[in-house]
Amino acid sequence: MQELKAVTKGDTFRVSIANSDLSFETNSKDTILGSLLRSGIGAPYECNSGGCGSCKFKLIEGSIREDYETCPGLRPSDRRKNKHLACTCRAESDCVIELQLDSSYAPKIRPSIKALKFISRTPLTHDLWTFRFQSEEPANFLSGQYSRMHIPGVSGARSYSMSNTPNDAGIWEFQIKRVPSGKATAVLFESNLAELSITIDAPYSVAHLDANSPRSIICIAGGSGLAPMVSILRGVAELQDRADQPILYYGARSQRDVVDPDYFLSVPGFDPGTQYIPIVSEPSADCVGPSGFVHEYLAQALPDDCSQMDFYIAGPPPMVEAVRRHLILDRKIPVDQLHYDRFF
Known about the structure:
single chain; alpha/beta; Elongation Factor Tu (Ef-tu), domain 3; Rossmann fold; 6-stranded antiparallel sheet; 5-stranded mixed sheet; disordered N terminus; 2 iron, 2 sulfur cluster binding; 2Fe-2S iron-sulfur cluster binding domain-containing protein; 2Fe-2S_ferredoxin-type; oxidoreductase activity
């Protein structure tokens, strides 16, 4: 095995994957996961923020630096086995790692860094707003994917899904939910964004629209998980010879968290009166419409036979997990017909 190179300022490093002929180049400014995907290699990942643990690897040789002291996706027992998360680690020397490879995660569009110019921000609800930016290059992504946004003065990137579709004009649209005491959303909601140098690293996610599937489409979202679902609805509207009408189930905590049905009139061919179903988990006395948890409502609302449906799911992890369990365990939906991102 070749001798490993130690870190010096400005160096790039070679990361080799054990038990394979694959390797890729990285540097201290990029995560191991980012460099892996930029090289076109596929390996499991999901949240890209240390929450899910999908991108776990074992360090065989070399040295790395971790962005965070602790991550929800990494247990103490993992650390004792010298395991780390590729999304939160950066190489400080040439390395050899043991990593599960999966070609289904190889990016169809390799992520890259883009500088954004602020255009506008408009409210959808009291704490969910639409933000629009523009890059000099085309906005190249697949409907349902997300970006990693770097905001001046905020430590670490934030993951935000696009709510529009790819376009040559370089328009990037996001639906961002304000987080109480959140540093990133405080900047986004309160600052003069035209004066800030915001960049994104995009695109990421394998939970994007499968334009070649003949099956009907069901979209299920909670909170800011609405953004990728809107992107998918718009993507479906742009497909030729697509006769089916996708359904959107949207979980909200209270009535004021429900997005106005009129918003969806901007989606070509989408009828919010029949295709948009908000479900309120904590309804008020005068609440009209479905209430309760999303997975409980789906149990009685979905048809008995869902075998010819593709399900796209995004939102808080408890909601996504409850919906997945219902679809897989109760309805026996094949795993490859479920496309999901959990928003940690």
